[in-house]
Amino acid sequence: NAGVTQTPKFQVLKTGQSMTLQCAQDMNHEYMSWYRQDPGMGLRLIHYSVGAGITDQGEVPNGYNVSRSTTEDFPLRLLSAAPSQTSVYFCASSLGRGFYGYTFGSGTRLTVV
Amino acid sequence: KQEVTQIPAALSVPEGENLVLNCSFTDSAIYNLQWFRQDPGKGLTSLLLIQSSQREQTSGRLNASLDKSSGRSTLYIAASQPGDSATYLCAVMNAGNNRKLIWGLGTSLAVNP
């Protein structure tokens, strides 16, 4: 099925561990982004990419890295997990930033203990 | 600074009612406004996208309006059904190079049979 695929769906990490959240889309969308969703704070943009090889920071980028080597994939790396990174993470893609709507993945629920 | 507010935070209605969800924003310089639906534990589904030059968009039983001058959008749901129960999120995209999405906290809707 066409769409945005995120893996894993659930993850528990210990403080200081690193991991990569995977995001893949098969719609040939240029724009991809990562959000975190926390109770009472809404969705906040972590990083985004307007095309392969181009990434930029959102409003809460600290502690996260991204790369975009292909149009399809946009992984999010947690360098050294902290309890403050406990959240639900969503990947989203769009044909272009602005005129088109967004397609979201089903999310990754991350707990850092 | 753009701020997006959704009122009410929660709404419970009997099946069959027509209802209105509200979204207000503080800066009228927007590129577009989008309404999303989020089911518990799931990702976000795009419902309607209204460009800044448009007044409304319709999809099935849903109708979204946009009044930039007053900084308001409404999502009208006709003949509500239990399957409409979800959280509805409003997101505004700022105009200009930033094109940042600013999110409301959502309205949690329960439609009772």
Brief digest:
The complex is a heterodimer of chains A (113) and B (113). Helices cover 0% and strands 51% of the residues of chain A. Chain A has 113 residues and is an all-beta fold.
Question: How would you portray this structure in words?
Answer:
The complex is a heterodimer of chains A (113) and B (113). Chain A is built from no helices and 11 strands. In chain A, strands 2, 4, 5, 6, 9, 10 and 11 form a 7-stranded mixed sheet that branches. Chain A has a 4-stranded antiparallel sheet with strand order 1-3-8-7, with no helix packed on it. With 113 residues, chain A is mainly β. In chain A, a hairpin with an 8-residue loop joins strand 9 and strand 10. The radius of gyration of chain A is 13 Å and the shape is globular. Chain A has strands at 4-7, 10-13, 19-25, 31-38, 42-51, 54-57, 64-66, 76-78, 87-94, 103-104, 108-112. Chain B is an all-beta fold. Chain B has strands at 4-7, 10-14, 19-25, 30-38, 44-51, 56-59, 62-67, 72-77, 86-94, 101-103, 107-112. In chain B, strands 2, 4, 5, 9, 10 and 11 form a 6-stranded mixed sheet that branches. A 5-stranded antiparallel sheet of chain B has the order 1-3-8-7-6, with no helix packed on it. Chain B is globular, with a radius of gyration of 14 Å. Chain B starts with a strand and ends with a strand. The chains are: A mainly beta (113), B mainly beta (113). The A-B interface holds A 4, 6, 40-43, 45, 59, 90, 92, 97-107 and B 31-32, 34, 36, 41-46, 49, 51, 89, 91, 93, 99-101, 103-106.
